[in-house]
């Protein structure tokens, strides 16, 4: 069965190190691990890398639209390659998880994440997999009575050095459970991932 891993982020040099680009960081790390390169594919509104995993086709996708239009790329590639929503894993930054924490789940709400909203609209279902990489919330950075940074400003800034180390560690944890995930042993993948990060 053909699989698709989508990393969410914003295109362009200005956004490379933004917290909002954690999904891009993950698929870049996976592409490096699999020794494949991303190529721009205009018909899929993004950059695509094709690999094999246990003999099955695996596509990696970085939409070249901005985050809130990510569904254009996901929908186009899924339709062309006949990939079902249950064979899609979307890797996203997650405000409600601390840096260093990663969680995987099937379906559920979008938590206000505009990229997920657009993907759900294009796939006509919320039943696709999400790998949520914690980036923390700006309210956690301020003392009592201080005004937190605006969420939009927070996600479009680079993490602090210590946060980046924790995010990188959670991405490694996510990469390590992919073999279980692709074998269909999703419960074991969840257990391994969720026991490593808190």
TrEMBL record:
GO molecular function: peptidyl-tRNA hydrolase activity; tRNA binding
Reaction it catalyzes: an N-acyl-L-alpha-aminoacyl-tRNA + H2O = an N-acyl-L-amino acid + a tRNA + H(+)
Site (Stabilizes the basic form of H active site to accept a proton): 93
GO aspect biological process, one term: protein quality control for misfolded or incompletely synthesized proteins
Site feature Discriminates between blocked and unblocked aminoacyl-tRNA, where: 10
InterPro entries recorded: Pept_tRNA_hydro, Pept_tRNA_hydro_CS, Pept_tRNA_hydro_sf
Compartmental location: Cytoplasm
Keyword hit for ATP-binding: no
Record keywords: Cytoplasm, Hydrolase, RNA-binding, tRNA-binding
Main location group: cytoplasm
Binding residues for tRNA: 15, 66, 68, 114
Protein's job: Catalyzes the release of premature peptidyl moieties from peptidyl-tRNA molecules trapped in stalled 50S ribosomal subunits, and thus maintains levels of free tRNAs and 50S ribosomes. Hydrolyzes ribosome-free peptidyl-tRNAs (with 1 or more amino acids incorporated), which drop off the ribosome during protein synthesis, or as a result of ribosome stalling.
Protein name: Peptidyl-tRNA hydrolase
